[in-house]
Design goal:
With 299 residues, the chain is of the alpha/beta class. It is built from 12 helices and 13 strands. It has a 6-stranded mixed sheet, with helices on both faces. Strands 11-12-10-13 form a 4-stranded antiparallel sheet. Strand 1 and strand 2 form a beta hairpin. The mean pLDDT is 89. Bound molecules: adenosine-5'-triphosphate. Adenosine-5'-triphosphate (ATP) binds next to helix 1. One of its GO terms (molecular function) is ATP binding. Keywords: ATP-binding, Nucleotide-binding, Transport. InterPro entries: AAA+_ATPase, ABC_transporter-like_ATP-bd, ABC_transporter-like_CS, ABC_transporter_ATP-binding, P-loop_NTPase. It comes from Cytobacillus eiseniae.
Amino acid sequence: MNAIVLLEDVTKAFKNKKAVDDVSFSINKGEVVAILGPNGAGKTTTIMMMLGLLKPTSGEIKLFNMDPKEKRVRERIGAMLQEVSVIDALKVIEIIQLFRSYYPNPMSVEELIVCTGLSDADLKKRAEKLSGGQKRRLGFALALAGDPELVFLDEPTVGMDITARKQFWQTISHLKEQGKTIIFTTHYLQEADDVADRILLFHRGTIVEEGAPKEIKMKLSKQSVSFVSEEELTIAELALLPNASNVYQKDGRIYIVTDNTDKILAEVFEKKYKISSIQIEQGRLDEAFEQLTNNREAI
Ligand SMILES: Nc1ncnc2c1ncn2[C@@H]1O[C@H](COP(=O)(O)OP(=O)(O)OP(=O)(O)O)[C@@H](O)[C@H]1O
């Protein structure tokens, strides 16, 4: 088996609330996997557990078939977390050298500079003087300092401008070509679609969809029929229509998400509902993602 990350029935509860609820997945060597989901979905908690920084309440996590806390594991992984906390008084280059010294086969400083886009001027700055975007670059450099086989990136592009984002994803593609395994979290379907081999879509602590971006897109970007209702129609009633896969209300219109708009229209007409302003929507991907998570919110 090529799986270098393995989670089996992992749950993390804070007090009584389950942040991650019975999650299982495995990741193979060389895969780029996006953990996608809205705020509070459990993405960061999952990353922190994989890194051995949080202990699961139940279930098991293995990296390279070992406990994530083992030194032999730590030497093979790198992580960029949301908060980069470094020693403010040190210069950027000193922090990078310090991190490199923790690893048996670190990446060269030259390569780290190319990968992260840090400039010579940035290297001489004290960490406390860095802008938000420069701090993210430093965080990325520290994640790569040990030339890791497995890289964890928690919302890596937050605070980056467009140029920095572009360069960042180019570097990720380059690291993938080198055979590195990359796991990143994001709120943005587009980012996951552009770079990931596989998406794990999290919502409320569970994986609600999993697959290649193409598969996820096919599942999510369903068409819908929308209309204005002239009478009191309940979502629950419409959800019973045989071809309705989802029903929701937005800006005074009712939307019925479906695989077959012709059939759903026939079903709606048959019921003789008093409706007007009927439209068929193609379904944008971002919208579909929002629908999926919003609708689950209401369940
Ligand atoms: N240390 C903690 N103590 C209590 N609750 C926590 C703690 N850490 C996370 N949670 C809760 O667990 C849930 C999942 O949080 P998590 O940070 O994993 O989500 P996320 O998907 O990373 O969200 P975001 O996109 O906002 O970063 C949230 O409801 C959060 O409030």
